[in-house]
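User: My collaborator and I are trying to settle a disagreement about how two of our proteins should look. Neither of us wants to argue from intuition anymore, so we agreed to look at predicted structures for both before our next call. Could you fold the first one, then the second, and keep them clearly separated?

Assistant: That sounds like a sensible way to settle it. I'll keep them separate. The first protein:
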Amino acid sequence: MFINAINHANSFALARRIVKIKHASAKVKTACLPPYPKMPHIPVKKAVPGVMLLAEALTLPLNAPSLIKRSGEAAGHMITISRAKPVFLEAEKTVDNDFLNVKAMVASVDSTTSDEFINRILETAQKSKCNPQDLTSLLYIESRFNPAAVRGSFAGIGQMNRTSLKLSVSYAKKHKNEAAGINPKITFDEFKRLSKEAQMPYVRNYILAMKNFYIKKDRPLSGGELYGLFYVPSRVQAKYLTAASDKETAKYYKSNRHLDFNKDYKITKDDLQKLIDDVKTTLLASRKN
């Protein structure tokens, strides 16, 4: 009975310690990871130490290091202390800088642009793993951020056609987590009348669908690859996208020869990247000024 009483006391003490640790963990998470108001849909990287270390950290003074590294303690050597880099703060700064850069790029063309549109661009870039400034440059090249832009059978801020729209809607049906903002029964005429904010989910799903089909790997996209998914997606992995001497792609080259940046009669992903970089530099100049 005496042994049972000791075990019961130990269990009770352990339970109380677990509750304290959980409480400490919750407090540290709340203190260290505030919500980011501008970007409700884009998660910020969070680095949270182990629960035991969190509980220990609460007992340290405010100027104590956030991570303690002990070396040679068993041998009686000096204990060295180092502070870990606050990863979540660095990530938040990056997100904030992306927001400001993209907003400056769009505002240089459309001063009335909304924060919602900027957030949609950032969300699309985050999900497709591309540089948000590359995506912004592409949208500028395609439509000058004008949702009513029409070029032949292509329309909208991302210059999509009926097939592109169907692919976007189909992707939402297969991937329920990408159904936000998608009307499964939308017609092409209805799509053309949407605001640029409302068109962005369709652009997002088109990029994801093309990346999933032609690149397959969930890896970061270069600006050239991103543009290639809009230009000739089936050749995004090829050495060149179109060429004047290539029978299969010559007609696409001739109608888009302005994309041949180095004038070598071939349009490659490097050409598209250089065009995007040029646009990016031009649009970002407004922020520096």
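The second protein, kept apart from the first:
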Amino acid sequence: MRFLAPRIFLAALTLFAAACSSQRPLPKYQKPIARARVQTVRTTAYTHTEDDHVRYSNRNALGGCLKCGPIHSAAADWSRWPAGTVFRIRETGQVFEVDDYGWALAGTNTIDLYKPSRAAMNAWGVRRVTIDNLRWGDPHRSLAILRQRMKHRHIRRMVDALEDRMAELSRPVEVAAPTFASTAPAGPTIDETARPPVTARRQPTISGQVGVVVSNTRPAVTPNPFFGSTSTR
């Protein structure tokens, strides 16, 4: 009997924890931001030794290890940034891949960045950054993975959003190249090879004969206001 009491207590504690988890409110829903090559987003940080992640150790939601190297792991709502999305933070130059998710991220526009230690996590804090989306993840693969875990409410929220937005998420994000039209007025056309016609002037009569002298002298040119009063072009 004395060994039964601790077991009953542990069972009751487990049921209480499960009940609390089922009553845990989901984060406030936020309208998804527009999908684009460049986005401004709110970011937080997490590490594998946090209380709500310690049971998963250093594993991500895809079954692999959380990454910290040339490419870092990140967690997000997969209906906004599907699993496999790769982005670069402009302010730091670091590259991240979405391979994780979390309760507090479902239905929000926040991205949680993985850090290898609590010190690095606390140093990051909460920051609003600009990201370049280098590659969008596969929404179909994300949906297939999440459908196997539907017992959790935050996952059901992501599944519902993925199903509603599948057509949008399946379209490529098009970025129009900027075009610049010249608005400068056209200047006057100047023919550098133009020469005034050769003119002939009549020579005074000498001994009853009239002679003609060919002159190569160019006539005076009226100053062109476009080039200034000193131009002779």
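Some points you might bring to the call about the second protein. The chain has a mean pLDDT of 78. Residues 37 and 176 are 11 Å apart (CA to CA).
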